[in-house]
Fold each of these.
Amino acid sequence: MRLIWMTDIHLNFVSPKDVNDLVKSIVAETADAVLIGGDIAEADSLDDRLIELSNGIQIPLYFVLGNHDYYRSSITQVRNAMLRLSQRVPNLTWLPQAGVVQLTKDTALIGHGGWGDGRAGEYRSSILLNDFFLIDELQVTHGSLDPDPETVLCDSLQVTLQKLGDEAAEHFRVHLTSALETSRHVVLLTHVPPFIETCWHNGGISDDYWAPHFTCQAVGAVLREIMSSHEQQQLTVLCGHTHSSGLVQILPNLKVVTGEAVYGEPCVQDVLDIT
């Protein structure tokens, strides 16, 4: 089975011609399914871009969401919209709702976008993401900022980020365990790198100030725990978010590939042949 993997395609930054060209490049690969690892567009255009892709490729499209997909809306509203869209469009599957997808006799697919959960590196820094102004549940105001001028991120925001990370971790605890009951190999699609070692940026690992926002440590802990007790089975993690590429073998049976991306240049990240 041939799988196309894309991540961080940010279709809100490109023209209709660029989307059409991307569809042509997908079709040319003669794959059996497409995986998209989040940051597809922004909330106001997400439905339309996914429908354009699904209509153009005419093969199953499995996806998770990234932080940009919630911009100018709320996590709750966008997730509800994706649930409705998946139910309406036959070849579109939002993976958190689908659970375990059996791709072949030996390989299963699971997915969840994850979130930068504020646990890796140094959370209290001067770094502010657009997430904290453009996503309803994460919005900060001057009244909610830490009074220490050296830091701007408040405790309540950190609690929210950790809850989002924990939600993703629990999803993978349930569905990875289930997938390993029937499959020798599991492909896990997510947006946020689950280990600091996989949080690549410009050829190196993100520093302690960026790592809290680009690593989902809660998910990494669950993946390491589960795969340590399933030594004869394999897990391949596909993630993005950092726009830089890298490959790390966390355990002998746990590989994480981080995808590269450039704003305005959506492309096929890789084509995977699975059995």
Note: The chain has one domain: 2-273.
Amino acid sequence: MSTDFLVSDPLPTVTPVASTPAVTFTSGGETLLGVLHVPAGPGPHPIAVLLHGFPGNERNFDLAQALRRAGYAALVFHYRGSWGVGGSWSWRNVLDDAARVAAAVREREFCSTHRLDPGKVAVVGHSLGGFAALMAAAADAAVGAVVSVAGFDFGAAASLSRADPAQRSAYVEDWDGELLPLRGTSGEALVAEMEAAGQAWSLARLAPRLADRPVLLIGTGRDPVTPAELHHRPLVAAYRAHPVGRLEDRVFPTDHALSDHRLELARTIVDFIGRHLRTSS
């Protein structure tokens, strides 16, 4: 696949032209705010739903733009209780919102309005969003491909938290420090919710439901938030053992936000999605 999507814009003579409409979705009685990056051309365009992490300082708009240049519609949105959206923040609400939006982008009116292909949907998530992406794909067979970038494995973290009081306190302290853009929660509440879910939120347990799906797991080698030894390598091993037949994995030597590997990250994701959800225009 060409990497021209990284350096060149589509010709202005292509119609319909590219656009970036604000869009909304309803989940749990609240209105979620999103931005859809629609490519030029008649489509119908495959769709990539981008799921940001906790609290969402890195929203991956660069990936959305790269995906659009490659011919994919790319959606970025906020979960309940975050960045001005109504409702309360919780891990459960994130999972429900991710599942709702992944279904909503396939609805007939939404696809007709924005020239989208409801049969070609990928879910791409970072950190908490990587967890949510894998959970959403496992629960929804219509998701055609899934990418987790520095995904946070809540099942593994719950086990560690229960076994090590110092680690539990560190989670509470760290999460308390990220609450400014959020509403309706606390570090203690979030740790308690994670521990209550326990192994129900283990990503390894999703292997049977992802066995026939293209899955890309990207780990980070200099990352204290989701260290590969806890959140990436055991998951890769579990998926290979099942096996998840179309699993691909990479570890980039970078930090949690992949700060100095954004172009390589974009190339990797666009190439992966391109091999499984080819554009039709």
Note: Residues 4-153+206-276 form a domain with the Rossmann fold fold (CATH 3.40.50.1820).
Amino acid sequence: MSTEKTAVPYKRILLKLSGEALRVQGSRDNISPEIVARIAREIAEAQRKAGLQIAIVVGGGNIWRGAKASVRGMDRPTADYVGMLATVMNALSICSAVQEAGVPCHVMSAIEMKNVAEPYVRNAARDLLRSGQVVVFAAGTGNPFFSTDTAAALRACEVNAEIVMKATSVDGVYSADPKVDPTATRFDTISYEECITRELKVMDQTAFTLCKDNRKPIMVFDMHREGNITRALLGERIGSIISL
């Protein structure tokens, strides 16, 4: 059997997954085992084909949104910490499914919880990635008031990922919200500056600035179409690319 790997444009990738994408809309289940398994299979397929170094950050919006809880009266830091714990549950689910798909995987948490995850240590994370293991970063940045988009941008910079791939419910960056404006057009490529000028909400401002200042391109693509995660990881031009 040939061991030759597929040539890819990016070897070390930070994949940002939406927590909302882990559930079936309208279902009472916050985490769909079937969706998680499908995502894991696609990640494992890309890793095996190309020997990729894949880091993952997953949101917690399918379980809890700190900002919404804060608006309803909860202390904001407390609400955000609850949200961080939600990301740990999602991370553990994804990690288990990736392992089931035949690829070694580790969860590293920004909040120490020895029984379920390793503490996040930058050099240890880089070593795991170099060894071909998938690493899921959980608990955001470990600090309130920061989104998981910001955690994804921060971890990408810390582990020297070559690109941030944001898997969402839309198939790229549009000139306007395509769900509201039927005349909205999708960009195949767009610069950071044009995104800022047009006030396009790709990520929150902190996350976007981190990527811009550290020259991390951002790919935005639709994760709901089966096979798209594998295609994106292997470098197929889907969705939109934001760069200098």
Note: Residues 12-243 form a domain with the Carbamate kinase fold (CATH 3.40.1160.10).
Amino acid sequence: MNTVKTFAPLAWRNLWRNPRRTVITLIVVSVGLWSVLFFNSFLTAWGEASKDATLSLLTGQGQIHAVGYLNDPNIEVLMPPPNAALTKALNAPQIKAWASRLQVPGVVVSEYKTLAVNILGVDPASERRVSAIPDKIVEGRYLNGADDDGVILGVSLVDRLKTGLGRRVILMSQNVDGSLSEQSFDVVGIYDSTKETEDFYVFTGLTTGQKFINVKDKIAQIVFTIPLDQDLEPTVADLAQAAPDLDVRSWKTLSLFLATTDSFMQSFIYIWLAVVFSLMAIGIVNTQLMAVFERTHEFGLLRALGMKPRQVLILVALESTFLIGFGVLLGMVLAALTIWSLYDGLDLSAFAEGLEMFQGGQVLFPQYDIGGFILFSLLIWLMGILVALWPARRAAKLSPVEAMRHAT
């Protein structure tokens, strides 16, 4: 410790004997760490926005179906409304909201075209708590109640059918007795969402849908939302225990693409960290080696005056510690300022079509990740010091006689 206290002021002064080299190293370290911290925040925000945008449409944080429904969603694989045990589990504090739906494959017919769709019967009051669709109405209105006999169509589907608000369309689907049900519906609302959702989902009242195909009070699914990610798996387990004869799944198994993307976002930052550190390591080693070569005479003189190899190693290591540490602090400040400047959100609506293809959110809200700031900053600092030990060890091994001769 006495050696460190003695050499610390000397190491700090040595850094500024060559300001250009010191500034270049500071830029390399600070920009590298800034990119890691900012991209960590950016990718986390992108992942959360993409997940929220997708799950808030129809998926929710999880769903409950009859066994076999997801493999073959048809009228024969429906389930009764939740019993007392399941209702109690669905009303648990960790579940924000839930809703029952009837979903069956069908056909929509206009004056000009016939297209295959999924017909969803919903309870508007419950649906508003679990889905963003009710807030995406761009023309007309949303459903007024479970017995509303109007129909809601997507913008793209309206265009393909060449129909519009106030027009009538015919829905057709299989009846409970195997025959074909056919009924005329008024288009009371048009919603704007992803093209896939607009093309394949039409909405009507839950009771209306049940009467349409004569299934009494049967439903196809129960969708639920859970605010906290850490409550997801325990809640799914509780629901599965409350309804052992039903198929309870979280969004991670319902939407494999989204789950894979979410996992990739978490892994990508470590890949980026490895790339950035590799580039930083090359710059740090190159800079420190040049410093050692330029100071060969100085190190030889210090050794001739009685400084031990261990002390030379400590001196050079302290210089690297101060230099990289200062660069790390600067990188943290730059990252914090960048994230703070985006506090009101980063609007990517100009790239809406591309984001829709990747199920991305259009407004990102980068947040400070204190754990990430500490972890990545310490990793960069420690790994930078370890990389700098090679030039330091080279300086410590210099022979005083050879160093003095090299100077002449």
Note: The CA atoms of residues 3 and 311 lie 7 Å apart.
